[in-house]
Amino acid sequence: LGTNLPFDTLLQATQDVQPRLFWLSVSYIEDESAFVSGVNTLFDGVNESGASLVIGGRAITAELRDQIMMHNFTADFRALEMFARSLHPISGEPTPPRVHSKRSNENLRS
């Protein structure tokens, strides 16, 4: 949909489009209490429509996860893909995990 959209707009989009999965990526939160309230309202609307709310992004801390309602938290696109496949199985292989070469593992240690 876009960036920095108000929760009312997101909720209206879920009512208009009626997706089975709504993913929200959060990279910055200005007002945590407003965010928690907005996400929980969004969850209610998404849940009532029979869809799943999945949240991810670097701004979602463990503390915030304890305060917000969601169907799943995903740390990356692969986790999102696996959750989506659990809702709607499709043919084909899922994205395999990243395999780091020995060389890249050595770089991580230095």
What does this structure look like?
With 110 residues, the protein is of the alpha/beta class. It is 46% helix and 12% strand. It has five helices and three strands; from the N terminus they run H-E-H-E-H-E-H-H. It has a three-stranded parallel sheet with strand order 1-2-3. Helix 1 runs parallel beside helix 2. The model has no long low-confidence stretch (mean pLDDT 82).
SSE diagram, text form:
Blueprint: H1 7-17, E1 21-25, H2 32-48, E2 52-56, H3 62-65, E3 72-74, H4 77-87, H5 102-109
Parallel strand pairs: 1-2, 2-3
Helix pairs in contact: 1-2
Main attributes of the structure:
single chain, 3 strands, globular, alpha/beta, about 110 residues
Our estimate of the beta-strand percent is 5-15%
Radius of gyration: 16 Å
- Main sheet: strands, sense, barrel: 3 strands, parallel
What is the percent of helical residues? Answer: 40-55%
Amino-to-carboxy terminus distance: 40 Å
Mean pLDDT: 82
Q: What is the string of SSEs from the N terminus onward?
A: HEHEHEHH
Give the assembly state of these chains.
single chain
Q: Looking at the structure, what is the overall shape? A: globular
Brief write-up:
This protein has 110 residues and is an alpha/beta fold. It is built from 5 helices and 3 strands; from the N terminus they run αβαβαβαα.
